[in-house]
Amino acid sequence: MRLAKLQQMMSSLSYQAMLITDPINIRYLSGFSGSAGSLLISAQQRYLITDYRYLEQARLECPDCQIICRDRSVQSLPQCIATLLQHEVISCLQLEYNHISVELFIQLQQELPCTVSASRNLPEQLRAIKDTTELACLRQAAWIGDTALAWLLPQLQVGMTERDAANLLQQKIYALGADELAFPTILLSGARSALPHGKPSLRCFEKGDWILLDFGARVEGYRSDMTRTVILGEASNEQQQFYHTVLTAQQAALAAVKPGITGHQLDQIAQSVLAQSPYAAYVGEGLGHGVGLALHEFPLMRRGCQVPLVADMVVTIEPGLYRPGFGGVRIEDDIVITQHGYELLTHSPRQLQQLPA
């Protein structure tokens, strides 16, 4: 079904053939989960090219493709492609320029009897709209994140290091059934929470600290992505105001979510709230991104993104403020676009939580 949709899109753009080299796109389109493969698609044919290590795996996972086992010692990938396409009239092969090495690009130029050209992000456009199986995986991944966070927060205490807390969270994510972490956990405290993508350190928690947790689980390849920011102890008035500003921005963006609105428009709604606050100098760029097999997928929820949202897209909404020397706050949720609005996939409380210190 997915390959047929891709071939229809190719036909509409007059693409004669396309080489898929991104492992995530290969998996999405063909089912192949190995680490060495290429997907060659023409108007009539679908070839999964791999080597002896993955031959049986490919046969099991890719029922809609003709499996080609290439002997890497005697045949280059361009030579293999040329052989497969020799009976078709192909003057140009479309490539995923974002997912191909310079070395392979030069080889293809030199060894193919046709020209090569950049393709549009067709697989990414297909991936943006999730089917029921994908949504079930994303819901499960989000549930794991919610459950792991609820388990972890009561255990956070003064003197615990960021790294120890991150390890506890990650162990719980695996214990709840995740295949993998969605990405390396971000868990930062105090002034370090102003690092948007910092790594957990050996810093010990102190009373009154911000603790920012950005993490996710992966289920059958599909990822959740949630951020919560809490206070260890009683929040100061300024911390409460800082947090409430971010929460207000997120709520404003969520209230506007519906099919047809663009990432640009939603970003502007959240940015306007933050820009009119006393903390305009500390606003983080962008509002969110699509999420699925990759952590950051099409569409990107930021200035300039004119892609209208449609039902069954899954995106994050995650405004943030990052004030050096004071700390950062990000509140991030995964949502699925519905016919009339959205559905939250992540359900952890968004009001500021003040943990016993």
TrEMBL record:
It comes from Rheinheimera baltica. This is Xaa-Pro peptidase family protein. Residues 2-129 form the Creatinase N-terminal domain. InterPro entries: Creatin/AminoP/Spt16_N, Creatinase/aminopeptidase-like, Creatinase_N, Pept_M24, Peptidase_M24B. It comes from the Bacteria. Residues 137-339 form the Peptidase M24 domain.
